[in-house]
Amino acid sequence: MDHKSRIDIGIPESDRVKIAEGLSKLLADSYTLYLKTHNFHWNVTGPMFRTLHLMFEEQYTELALAVDVIAERIRSLGANAPGTYQAFAKLTSIEEPEGVPEAKEMIRQLVQGQEAVVKTARALFPRVEKAGDEASADLLTQRMQLHEKNAWMLRSLLE
């Protein structure tokens, strides 16, 4: 077949395109946070090493699964998912670290990263809700809940 199959899931194409664009930002933030968390897992040192090493591993493992779910939702909406460092760098709101920060700075940066993902998801929510895209709304709700919890747990280590 050399023609594209029409997508008829009850969401207008213009809404699907805009939702996929927003999910692409969520994917970029999630992948960038994955990479940052994995980097910090490898390079953390200090008295909280074991705690942070294990916590960071739990978080990057969950993010590795999440990026697949987000990318598959983008594809379900009929768009291509971004998948290169170049594309992610253009779309993400998360800054890459300079060098290898101290453990507490790693935690602080990861709190900011977790919160950035929440803000990206929350910004898309009204468009998803207006379009009646319950599947994307469910995905966003789950991501916000998880990242808010992760931010709280990380923030608790700084108090």
Automatic annotation (TrEMBL):
GO terms for molecular function: ferric iron binding; oxidoreductase activity, acting on metal ions. Pfam families: Ferritin (PF00210). It comes from the Bacteria. PROSITE patterns: DPS_1, DPS_2. Residues 21-159 form the Ferritin/DPS domain. PANTHER family: DNA PROTECTION DURING STARVATION PROTEIN (PTHR42932:SF3), GENERAL STRESS PROTEIN 20U (PTHR42932). Belongs to the Dps family. This is DNA starvation/stationary phase protection protein.
